[in-house]
């Protein structure tokens, strides 16, 4: 019998809201969820590892990947390319495993068109002031880049209503718990739909 496909979860939201932090925390507490590693042309930050945090590529290498249709989606974000490897996502879902993508808003909207059955989660900050504090507190950007990221963040917040769920990241563990609850609910929904379908067809 054909294996049932896994669910694609897309975690998105403005820069600095805590996507990376929540993603890393989920990795430690959610067995059975697969995490896609993105490709980027951004330089590695201190402590980041190639093949763990990102696959770090040159612009030429990245553009070649676009040409060869190796990416599910890609976006240019604050001067760098970011993209999701297509083959990994497709194979993992086909194997019946759930996959989580942590990507910015333009990319999430592309995935929404390509995989409408995916579950789209928008991580929201408690306030704009708190969002700025988090970007400044992270200490990875210059003042000019912070202003740039805040500008992009305000535009990104307006895209919230394109998502299935909005999860406030007030506290990391609370946000992780909400995301895990969404996953449980989505699996129950999928099972119920399948049961109804089987009942209608009277397939045992
Ligand atoms: N579209 C897209 N965005 C990505 C991908 N990987 C990471 N991003 C997003 O790119 C943005 C910048 O990421 P990064 O430079 O690591 O900075 P940070 O997440 O703001 O700390 C974030 O919003 C990430 O979620 C990807 O594969 N595709
Ligand atoms: N719930 C939270 N409360 C307080 N600080 C947070 C929370 N979530 C993340 N942060 C902090 O905010 C900063 C930005 O988080 P990060 O995960 O890099 O965001 P993103 O990946 O969305 O750009 C980091 O310094 C991180 O430690």
From TrEMBL:
Keywords, comma-separated and alphabetical: ATP-binding, Cytoplasm, Kinase, Nucleotide-binding, Transferase
First-listed, main subcellular location of the protein, grouped into a coarse class: cytoplasm
UniProt-listed Enzyme Commission number(s): 2.7.4.8
Reactions catalysed according to its record: GMP + ATP = GDP + ADP
Enzyme class, UniProt record, top EC level: transferase
Location(s), subcellular: Cytoplasm
Domain Guanylate kinase-like residue range list: 6-184
Pfam families associated with the record: Guanylate_kin
Residues given in the record as ATP binding sites: 13-20
DNA repair among keywords: no
Alphabetized Gene3D superfamilies for the sequence: Guanylate Kinase phosphate binding domain, P-loop containing nucleotide triphosphate hydrolases
Sample GO molecular function, one term: GMP kinase activity
InterPro entries to which the protein is assigned, alphabetical: GK/Ca_channel_bsu, Guanylate_kin-like_dom, Guanylate_kinase, Guanylate_kinase_CS, P-loop_NTPase
HAMAP family hit by this protein: Guanylate_kinase
Similarity comment: Belongs to the guanylate kinase family.
Free-text function comment from the UniProt entry: Essential for recycling GMP and indirectly, cGMP.
Protein name stated in the entry: Guanylate kinase
Organism: Pseudalkalibacillus berkeleyi
Species classification: Bacteria, Bacillati, Bacillota, Bacilli, Bacillales
